[in-house]
Amino acid sequence: MDCIFCKIREGEIPSYKVYEDDHVLAFLDITQGTKGHTLVIPKKHVPNVYEVDEDTITHVFTAVPKIARALKKAFNPIGLNIVNNNDRPLQSVFHFHVHLIPRYEDDGMVLSTKNNFGKIEPETFIEITQKIKDSL
């Protein structure tokens, strides 16, 4: 397999592991967007959230708060972003992973969403709601 995270899991590529159990591995993101920026991955190869099973996602999100609390204790950030990218445009490694990004005063990180508050008609919300419900 040509997955960098699977190679990290197998020890073929070195990493800075911060947590490991039977189902999950967490290691420092090599980019260190901020001090302590950590990736949490399932050991099972799953490309994205669309293909992850409930058991696997449960293991990942059971580990996330544990690691987040460790980051808070270790670095006392003012906050923490939890980010997961899927497909285009931002997923760069196609092995499901969650970024835990501690936030600090003036850390230079920019994570934002477009604010369309007041620009969308109620009918549009109803249509969007129904399309999602019909797809469940």
Automatic annotation (TrEMBL):
Q: Which residues form the HIT domain?
A: 4-110
Q: Which SUPFAM superfamilies match?
A: HIT-like
Instruction: Return one GO MF term.
Output: catalytic activity
The lineage's top-level taxon is Bacteria
Residues of the active site are 97 (tele-amp-histidine intermediate)
As annotated in the record, motif Histidine triad motif runs over 95-99
Biological process GO annotation list? nucleotide metabolic process
Q: What is this protein called?
A: HIT family protein
Species, as recorded: Candidatus Xianfuyuplasma coldseepsis
Traced from the root, the source organism's taxonomic lineage reads: Bacteria, Bacillati, Mycoplasmatota, Mollicutes, Candidatus Izemoplasmatales
